Amino acid sequence: MSVAFAQFVGSPVASGLDRLRPRPLPEPLLQTPPAATTQPRRPLGMILLEQRAVTSADLLRALAIQTREKARLGDILRAHGMVNEAAVIRALATQYGTSILTARQGRPDPRLIDALGPARCLAMQCLPWKRAGAVTLVACAAPDHFAEHRPALEAALGPVAMAVISEGDLHEALIGSRRALLTLMAETCVSAAESCRGWNARRFSLFLGLALAGLVAATLMAPLASFLALFGLVVTVLLICTAVRLAAAVAHLRSLKAPAPRGQITSLGQRKPVISMMVPLYGEPGIAPRLVRRLGALSYPRELLDIMIVVEEDDHATRAALAKSALPHWMRVVPVPDSALRTKPRALNYALNFARGSIIGVYDAEDAPAPDQLHRVARRFAESGPDLACIQGVLDYYNPRTNWLSRCFTIEYAAWFRLILPGFEKLGLAVPLGGTTLFFRREVLEALGGWDAHNVTEDADLGIRLARHGFRTELLDTVTLEEANCRVLPWIKQRSRWLKGYAMTYAVHMRNPRLLLQQLGWWRFFGFQVLFLGTLVQFLLAPILWSFWLMLFGLGHPLAEALPQGALFGVAALFLLSEVINLAINISALRAADHRFLRPWALSLHFYFPLAALAAYKGCWEMITGPFYWDKTAHGHHDAAGQPALGQA
Fold it and tell me: Domain residues for 88?
């Protein structure tokens, strides 16, 4: 984030913000607090007891929790509702012998913020507020870490003095002074070389027009040869993609029989990390109360859990519904400032600045995760080396019985998340991420710049960027239940967004094929071509394969006379083999007890995937007319009430 900030300090936006002037502060806040002494500070718990802000029983309970978890006493007390925020801030001010600042006491000097940088302010939880003579007053939401940050603060600001501020007030004050810059950083934090924000729709439309014109001209001049060339292309792609899917499925099924490796962890139970889960919502007031209830079922320690419900600032209906839900201290709303760009990755980038955890996770609005999921994620990161940057959970659906479309969607996801993606990992291929139940090491995520705010399949793109920079993604057999998109038009809209994103992701990473090959290596480069280009070719040229159904009905086919009889039998055998392999993969993926009722429906996927061809054509059109348009999927139409929970992976 700091790189993006440096690029824009001198921009017109930053210059405009520099003209903002803070209101005067009360005189006591401008005084330098007493110098630190060598005597130990009075314990925070004792001060809270003296101020009658906490009972002795609650304090003992909080201290017992602190012996097990790496958490501050104030955070434990607030997370469990034993004391309110104002009381903790008063006690901290007393403990450190300083004053209290609030967002209502004026606006911080934006020039001082720029000297440190908004991203560093948030990372340190320190906000430069006002200069008094040679001393800069710094509002700090974590005074126990102020001494640790003092050298960096003084290097940027000169002599500093600390005042205590709540985290919420620090965020509010920073946003008030640097709102436009934070918004711009969220949209441009990924390097231009790996982002699609420079997408040239006019150039793409020209390229597409020339390609179509060339295809039409070739068809008019040599219709049979043109059809045969396209047919050869799509059959070759079908053969390669089927082989890769089969290899992935077999690799994962073999791994299930091997003994699980033993981890090296010894003390995770005592030192769990803080996990920040970001949940983007937009225009979903009905689902908000259910989301709060579902996330409340997570069993992770509340003092180490940071649930961030990310909403657009002008989404008043959703924010009002959340306000009525009485959010606990460990669950908070992060409003994202309005912008012309309205995408999920932009909102995630903005919220990432305000996250508390060393592990960053993402859930969707309709998600119902397994209660122990975060425990397992934290354990897996602790057991693994630093090259493991991302953990992807298994996605499943809680409404497969709604209709035929929801059944097919559930079968498709079962094969993808329970066989194919784990198989990709076992084969050493780059793993395209799903949009939810994702968990990242924060330092890696920030080093890569977060998500590409302009990419409508930001998840798959990020998976490839992780692989390009030498990091691994693992699949973990922990399940998050979602709502299957089971209405035809919304399904096509959602799938068109995914395929449009696949096409743009492919175009971005193939800007420099030689560099991509160098970073991925031959094997993963081949897997990238199969996954992205192969998927697009199969859906865009699917009608060519469908045309062979005419022969089954005795209607003839243009290639029937052009190809020798043996070749036609070979093509028919290839089609049959491909269908048998895909059917076997789908049925194998439905081995959980709660999935078995779906096995007969696997035969009906012949009528399901043609919808994706329509979505592919819609996505191509939008690459010209609306490359960054996010075709939002509405949730909450089919709640989990009364639906059976599906089995674990």
Answer: 2-192
